[in-house]
Amino acid sequence: MKAAVLAVQGDFIEHENMLRRLGVETMEIRQSADLSEPFDALVLPGGESTVQGKLLNELDLMKPLHDKIAAGLPTLATCAGLILLAEHIENDGSYLGTLPVTVRRNAYGRQLGSFYTESQWQGIGKIPMTFIRAPFITAADPTIVRATVDDHIVGVTYRNQIALSFHPELNDDLRIYEQFIKMADRN
Amino acid sequence: MEENRYELNKNLAQMLKGGVIMDVTTPEQAKIAETAGACAVMALERIPADIRAAGGVSRMSDPKMIKGIQNAVSIPVMAKCRIGHFVEAQVLEAIDIDYIDESEVLSPADDIYHIDKTKFKVPFVCGARNLGEALRRIAEGAAMIRTKGEPGTGDVIQAVHHMRQMNKEISQLVSLREDEVFEAAKQLQVPYDLALYVHEHGKLPVVNFAAGGIATPADAALMMQLGAEGVFVGSGIFKSGNPAKRAEAIVQAVTNYTDAAKIAALSEDLGEAMVGINEEEIKILMAERGQ
């Protein structure tokens, strides 16, 4: 299996390292020419969503990636990636818009609001969660919710998309990735 | 400082990687920078080129001005305090800044001691010219490092020099036998555990950006190819003819820093670059402040 990691900005290398630990081949997407290489799954990393969203447009990646995800490409999105996927962003226009949720950017405030916790992910158990100037989901169909922290939705799984407010790539726990690979294998 | 908080602070720097942090002096400039794709902005009263021109003592910016910038954008906002001026740092923490730059661009407040950054909850970025400076700043609690370069000049030579120097010293440390790391730590004047980390991992324990004199998309790509994980652009943008276009071009050059054809296209019609002054023509070498 080969996973493509969006590498226009952010902590994409950390995702690549996690995937390689599980024996998954990785490649980077930095421009539209990179899409000519076939891949089986997609990771949208953490970073600044405004930067990544702008670069997706400027580098002509927005539509092709949207079409692939909408057509069923298994996709794992963390933090900024969740914002890129969301159908609705509070006080802002959307980017890829393939995930039927509403998100709030910087929902925990500035860096002093960043935090670490451990909480339940439905079907996995308690996992480490690192929130960095993170968003959370303010509206989603209850059937797709997989994790909440202090009553805020921080993780969902919808069809081919797994989206998280936090950063599994920054902690030493591979279970979210195993779940993602399992989903991609079924695909 | 709780262990956890330092990890979270190093992690924020991870999110900035592959991005461009731009100096801004007004909310309007901050908006332009954000729209152009800056991953963070550095709020300061005067950009380094103007600090040079004005001379005198330069200090932390007016908190009201910084708040104006915080309200104008949704990306992280950084601000500078003087080297050793821990009260300016306390003030910046009190207004909920995302990152403090303990910066040689401002007039140093202490000629011996840097701020004990372990006493703060907010993260710090510090400049370094070599591995020893970088690891001393990290020992003091810095969660991110940048080259010092020579700010406000539009001349990239010092940033290149500092990045190459750091890379060379990292390679040397990696190549040592493990029992030689004790002596290397002594020579570098750094704590042994940080020297050992570099010996084992071949990199700094925190994110390392390039800064100081970057003015063009090619400058930014040069620093990325030399191993920078992102770049700071200070005077280079708002001292140029067309700030918005130049800012966008630098952002894209950092993403596709090995694609020469793309950098060529990005470099077209950017208007006038900042005029710049050569490093040997200037009176104050900011990079020599705070070692």
Automatic annotation (TrEMBL), chain A:
The active site is at 79 (nucleophile), 167 (charge relay system), 169 (charge relay system). It holds the Pfam family SNO. One of its GO terms (molecular function) is glutaminase activity. Its EC number is 3.5.1.2. Keywords: Glutamine amidotransferase, Hydrolase, Lyase, Pyridoxal phosphate. GO terms for cellular component: cytosol; glutaminase complex. The keyword Cell membrane does not apply. CDD domains: GATase1_PB. This is glutaminase. It comes from Catenisphaera adipataccumulans. The lineage of its organism: Bacteria, Bacillati, Bacillota, Erysipelotrichia, Erysipelotrichales.
TrEMBL record, chain B:
Pathway: Cofactor biosynthesis; pyridoxal 5'-phosphate biosynthesis. Belongs to the PdxS/SNZ family. GO terms for molecular function: pyridoxal 5'-phosphate synthase (glutamine hydrolysing) activity. This is Pyridoxal 5'-phosphate synthase subunit PdxS. One of its GO terms (biological process) is pyridoxine biosynthetic process. It comes from the Bacteria. Its EC number is 4.3.3.6. The lineage of its organism: Bacteria, Bacillati, Bacillota, Erysipelotrichia, Erysipelotrichales. Gene3D superfamilies: Aldolase class I. Homohexamer and homododecamer. In the presence of PdxT, forms a dodecamer of heterodimers. The active site is at residue 80. D-glyceraldehyde 3-phosphate binds at residue 164. It catalyses: aldehydo-D-ribose 5-phosphate + D-glyceraldehyde 3-phosphate + L-glutamine = pyridoxal 5'-phosphate + L-glutamate + phosphate + 3 H2O + H(+). Catalyzes the formation of pyridoxal 5'-phosphate from ribose 5-phosphate (RBP), glyceraldehyde 3-phosphate (G3P) and ammonia. The ammonia is provided by the PdxT subunit. Can also use ribulose 5-phosphate and dihydroxyacetone phosphate as substrates, resulting from enzyme-catalyzed isomerization of RBP and G3P, respectively. It is an enzyme of class 4 (lyase). Residues 7-211 form the PdxS/SNZ N-terminal domain. PANTHER family: PYRIDOXAL 5'-PHOSPHATE SYNTHASE SUBUNIT SNZ1-RELATED. Keywords: Lyase, Pyridoxal phosphate, Schiff base. The gene is pdxS. D-ribose 5-phosphate binds at residues 23, 152, 213, 234-235.
